[in-house]
Write a structure and sequence with these properties.
single chain, 174 residues, mainly beta, 2 domains, two-stranded antiparallel sheet, 2 helices, binds zinc ion
Length: 174
Amino acid sequence: MSAELKITLAPTLDFLGAHLALQGVLDIFRFDAGGRAFVVDKGISYNLELTNTGGAVLVSGVVKANTVAVCDRCLASCDLQLQGELQEYLVIKGSQADFSDADAEFTVVDANEEIDLAAYMIAALIFELPITVLCKDECKGLCPRCGTNLNTSTCNCDGELSADHPFAVLKSLL
Ligand SMILES: [Zn+2]
Ligand SMILES: [Zn+2]
């Protein structure tokens, strides 16, 4: 296991039809996204296919990670299972590839350059992150006045917020 997955396209993948399957687990136990930290349990597993489609190598497949995140409402730790899809063309610099698939993600690389696929895998996981992380859909969050976790206890604060309270808008969303 390794925290990086480095490949070079030459000499095994730089010709039309060349193919390589990669499976394993990356020893990455944490990544950051959007100012939040995600702890990865047991690393990031991957199952990738690399295929030279003529001047470019298509990296496709699935990456999975069981992460521990922090609930955005109550700040408790919660499990978050992520599964991302990779679909990335590595376009070989100087090739005659007619690469006009505007929708695909692509990177221009040198055939002898070391490429760390771990970066693409993490990007695929980050792409799947929910906008809001919740420990459960019905999470009641923290009392905006005293900070009590309303999932596990109650507090004596008046539940109603004045309209000009900064959390009033938030409350209407909940
Ligand atoms: Zn929560
Ligand atoms: Zn309270």
